[in-house]
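As the next step, I wrote out a protein sequence along with its fold in token form, included below for the reader:
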Amino acid sequence: MKAIVTATAFFICFQLGGTTWAQAGKKASPASLDQLLQQVRKGYRSQSEEDKQREREFSADKSKQQALLKKARATMAREQKRGEKMEKEFDRNEALMAQLEETLRLRLGNMGELFGVIRQVAGDVRNQVDSSMVSAQFPGRGDKIIPLTQSKVLPSVKQLELLWYTMQHEMTESGKIVRFKAGVVTAAGIEEELDVVRLGVFNAVTQGKYLKWELPPVSKLVELARQPPDRMLGGVAELETAKEGYVRFAVDPSRGQILGLLVLTPSFVERVQLGGTIGYIIMILGAVTALLTLIRMLVLLFVSMKVGSQRKSKEIKKNNPLGRILSVYQENTKLDSETLERKMDEAILRESSRLERFLWAVKIVSVVAPLLGLLGTVTGMIQTFQAITLFGTGDPKLMADGISVALVTTMLGLIVAIPLVLLHSWLKSMSRRVMDVLEEQSAGIVARRAEQEKACDTAAD
């Protein structure tokens, strides 16, 4: 029974919220049912007061919540009206902005194109300044106008003045000859601080040598790996030391392009090397034949001089062809005219072989040299077609070797053949003149001998 009552009291306390488990644990357990009943009553009254207090607070809060709700609804209505107003204002501003942009476009007119042209001109000026030799003396000029070339807004007056100043400065410096110190990259690849003489925007020289301007990102004066011919270097030293007056100097008006092509032009030795093996054969044959031709020319000149001296002298000398012909007559004075003529013809043939010695070699080489050149041409074209077959025609450098062999060997063959043809004709004419003298003298001797025989026969009759 006691357990049932205790459970009932626990249930009532839980339902009414009179005491919690912690509070119940703190209070002493009732000793009797009366004490339990008293505790339950106290808890019920306390709970009732709390509930009423809660009801009063809720009623008071309800009116407050109604006021807050009303205020919130008023605020929402006010904000809705404000939003509608701002939306209408946004639409009006958007329409106005479109109208103003159109008005700006119409009022700008050609000015918009003008600013576009200014940006384009600024880019062109920067490229020109960066590639100009004047930048060696005034580095970093092009960097100052970079913002103008990249700007998407209207340029300021200061930027326009800077662009104008850069253009004017370039024009002014293009007409000056100045001397200044600058870093120069020598042919050995070492950068040195040297005295440089700049001739406008065209050329720069130092220590008797031409320089070229390397474009960005290098932006340095570089000594040409190969200098132009001596005839163009003659005025460089004079220009470097000149203080006033006029100096003869080779100017490149293309700002280094012609000078670069001139430097790349191969010399005669380099051209011969391009001819390859056939080119060397042609040159060796030409050199040997030229030496032989020179020797034969000197021999024929001395022979002609001795023959001319023998014609004027009454003394017979055997150191020349005419003297040897006359000695044959002198040794055979008792022979008849017909036998003497045969003897003289034999001597003339013997002298003819001596006079025309090695002329055949000159003639043969003059004919063979163009044929060797033609052989080199065919060989070079074969190489060219092989390169075309393997690599196509996209890169002309792959065909350059074959074309060089084809053209250079033909050139060398003609260079050797043309002078040899002329020299052979000259040597032939020189020997022919000597032979004419010998034949003339021989015919005269035979004719006189025939007249003598005829006179003797007439006297005998």
Observations:
- The longest strand covers residues 177-185.
- The chain has 15 helices and five strands.
- The CA atoms of residues 126 and 146 lie 8 Å apart.
- Strands lie at 177-185, 191-199, 203-206, 209-213, 221-223.
